[in-house]
Specification:
two-stranded antiparallel ribbon, 2 helices, alpha+beta, 4 strands, elongated, 2 domains, binds zinc ion, 53% helix
Length: 92
C-alpha cells in the first residue's frame, strides 16, 4: 500500500515539475519578445498588427521609414492600400 502511495506522490511531483517548467519556459519566451519590442528589434506589421523582426526580408521603404511585414500577403495588402483601389496610373 505504501508503495502505491509513493508512486502516486512521485507521479504528482514529476507532473508538477513538468507543468512548472513548461510555464517557466513560456514566460521566458514572452519576456524575450517584450525585450525585443522594447529594444526596437521588433516592429509592428501595419497590416495585421503582428510583431516581426526588424531584420525581416519582407519590407517596404516609404521615404525614410522602412516597414516590415510578417508575410508577402500583408505586404501586398499594404501596397494595394497605399496605392488606392482601382486607381489607374496611366498603365495600359
Ligand atoms: Zn501581417
Amino acid at each position: 500500500m505504501t508503495k502505491l502511495l509513493i508512486a502516486i506522490i512521485c507521479g504528482f511531483v514529476v507532473w508538477k515539475l513538468f507543468m512548472g517548467d513548461k510555464r517557466y519556459k513560456q514566460n521566458k519566451s514572452e519576456e524575450k519578445t517584450e525585450n525585443l519590442k522594447a529594444s526596437g528589434e521588433m516592429v509592428r506589421d501595419p497590416v495585421c498588427g503582428a510583431y516581426v523582426s526588424k531584420n525581416s526580408d519582407i519590407r517596404v521603404r516609404q521615404g525614410d521609414v522602412v516597414l516590415n511585414f510578417c508575410s508577402y500577403d500583408c505586404r501586398e495588402t499594404y501596397l494595394k492600400r497605399i496605392q488606392g483601389p482601382g486607381e489607374g496610373d496611366g498603365q495600359a
